[in-house]
Model the fold of this input.
Amino acid sequence: MPKTPAVLLVNIGELVTLRSAVRGPRRGRDLSDLAIVKDAAVLCAGGKIVSAGTGKEAVRDRWVKKNRKNIIEIDCRGRVVLPGFVDSHTHPVFAGPRLVDFEKRILGATYEEIAQAGGGIRSSLEGVRKSSRSVLANKVRDTFFEMQKHGTTTLEAKSGYGLTLESELKSLEAIRAAAGQWPGTVISTFLGAHVVPAEFRGRSQEYVDHVCQSMIPAVAKRKLAQFVDVFCDRGAFSMEETRQVFESASQHELGVRAHVGQLSESRLQGILHFQPASLDHMDFVNDADLPALAQSKTIATLVPGANYFLGLGRYPDARRLIEAGVAVALATDFNPGSSPTLSMPMALSLACTHMKMSPAEAIAAATINGAWALGLAQRKGSVEAGKDADLSIFEATDHREIPYWFGVNRCVLTVVTGMCSGAIT
Ligand code: NIG
Ligand code: FE
Done:
């Protein structure tokens, strides 16, 4: 047994373990199998989960009996414990909010109209280009800690608001610096193909060439990202341009993912062979793409915070995807334009009320399937011996309360690789 302090969580009312015999991402009926243990305990040591089971089993454990004095014991007093949330889609590197866009939308303008009039993503570029790396890193770090307060212990963070070689590298370096100051796990994504910046207006192909020939090699050389993302949609990049970016990413041994089907439908057959870890938004998906998607390991990451904040009446059709066997994840899409929320419980609540996912499905989509979307399922997303000791404890006695109480934060404590943050009162 390792010498680092061991932590024993006891008196857990409901322990959502998500352990399962299923080897891949959760699909269909398996998505609602939370494998809850009541009156449970979890023993963590050396940053890993050693055991998870009933409280009675923990008390009888010989190692626990012998080492009781050296174990930090946390009395959960009947509360719900989950695997820490895996927020698999966030854009945390920006300088400030987009309040003009917000007011324009309230007055009736759409996201696309605002972008065409010079607002939208392009209006966030100047702030990032002018900010120092340390200013950005501090903001990103503060965001990570705020996310942790809401139960997130693993996240993906994208660049994409610089869109010059220098400012994209600076953004990814800010993510790296912030990740070094935060106990959770961060996966970085290069999103140079977010939109065509003003200086390349009307020269989309030239910008894509720049992304592929200069930016991706520089990011790969510095090992600043694990994934490359593309905003593949009307007003951003075409499917052909997306394929070019994916080709370059693959040549540089970077994983790929894309924003697809947020504003308009794109057919997916041209990109699935790149084995994207995830395709995100997916508001518009052609029926004919569902079988191939369901047979792939690609996760459909749904981000209802964007639909909510853009004031859309429509949401991604989660039921259709789940029933077709597509593996679905949930994420915040935290960003200043379409989804300024860093709360995973809020995303879960929207998924239940507007996408008709059950609370159980929403929790699995926000944990184990989020881990699959980041290639981390061997370490994250469920409470099983050998996995990282990442847990979140909620002021609730039933897991269904997590999406039920919306707009408030009921996460009282997180354990990140075996270290506690917060205190139960
Ligand atoms: O996921 N769709 C592209 N990217 C973001 C929005 C970025 C922005 O508006 O600043 C999204 O919704
Ligand atoms: Fe996004």
